[in-house]
């Protein structure tokens, strides 16, 4: 495709120790590719509607399916969102980790500045490189998997787990990415678990790496399967 040569030229590959370069790119309104144990993720400034819009467009993802917001700390999360007692139990048990919580904003004005992550917002505190970038960047970090949205067919391998997968997606979509952090192959190839904590009683939305039984143990009660 005609997009492929330009993507090869513009996407710089850096190592995990060079997080300041990735943080600067986000602060400049650019997109960054970041590895996790699960998948490679496309990241943007969550308050930059134009940057996030490029992600939605490339993934053919409706804006009704928001991006995840990566909080740098539980303290920061509590300052921005309202956490029920069950939400706090889950965050304390599994963050940083492969769990995302749907949380209500404390201030509607702040939600209005970050429409890409939705209301309620899908919030996670990530381990590893993604968590380090969220802590370092001076802008809120939105992230999503690198793949086209929609129902996966039987031959769809799923989101990107290697930089070659990332390049294939960029070539197919023409999405411009400033740089990618090399994390090798993502070993888990599985999703985050998602729990709805908008109301007092948490409910499981999607099962992923954090098992239903682990959630039930943390809550001290059975949480039904999604």
TrEMBL record:
GO terms for molecular function: ATP binding; double-stranded RNA binding; L-threonylcarbamoyladenylate synthase; tRNA binding. It comes from the Bacteria. Its main location: cytoplasm. GO terms for cellular component: cytoplasm. PROSITE patterns: YRDC. Residues 16-210 form the YrdC-like domain. Its EC number is 2.7.7.87. GO terms for biological process: regulation of translational fidelity; tRNA processing. Keywords: ATP-binding, Cytoplasm, Nucleotide-binding, Nucleotidyltransferase, Transferase, tRNA processing. SUPFAM superfamilies: YrdC/RibB. InterPro entries: DHBP_synth_RibB-like_a/b_dom, Sua5-like_dom, TC-AMP_synthase_SUA5. It catalyses: L-threonine + hydrogencarbonate + ATP = L-threonylcarbamoyladenylate + diphosphate + H2O. It is found in: Cytoplasm. Belongs to the SUA5 family. This is L-threonylcarbamoyladenylate synthase. The lineage of its organism: Bacteria, Bacillati, Actinomycetota, Actinomycetes, Kitasatosporales.
């Amino acid at each position: 495709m005609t997009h492929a040569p330009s993507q090869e030229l513009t996407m710089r590959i850096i190592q995990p120790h060079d997080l300041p370069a990735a943080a600067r790119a986000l602060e400049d309104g650019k997109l960054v590719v970041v590895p996790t144990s699960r998948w490679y993720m496309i990241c943007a400034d969550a308050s930059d509607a134009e940057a996030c819009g490029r992600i939605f467009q490339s993934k053919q993802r409706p804006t009704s399916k928001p991006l995840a917001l990566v909080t740098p700390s539980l303290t920061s999360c509590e300052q921005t969102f309202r956490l029920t007692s069950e939400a706090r139990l889950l965050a304390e048990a599994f963050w940083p980790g492969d769990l995302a919580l749907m949380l209500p904003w404390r201030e509607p004005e702040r939600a209005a500045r970050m429409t890409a992550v939705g209301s309620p917002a899908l919030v996670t505190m990530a381990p590893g490189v993604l968590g380090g970038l969220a802590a370092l960047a001076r802008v809120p970090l939105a992230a999503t998997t690198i793949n086209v949205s929609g129902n996966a067919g039987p031959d769809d391998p799923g989101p990107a787990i290697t930089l070659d997968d990332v390049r294939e997606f960029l070539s197919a979509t023409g999405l411009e990415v400033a740089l990618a952090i090399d994390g090798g192959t993502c070993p888990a190839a599985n999703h985050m678990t998602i729990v709805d904590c908008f109301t007092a009683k948490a409910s499981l939305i999607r099962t992923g790496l954090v098992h239903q039984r682990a959630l039930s143990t943390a809550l001290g009660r059975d949480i039904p399967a999604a």
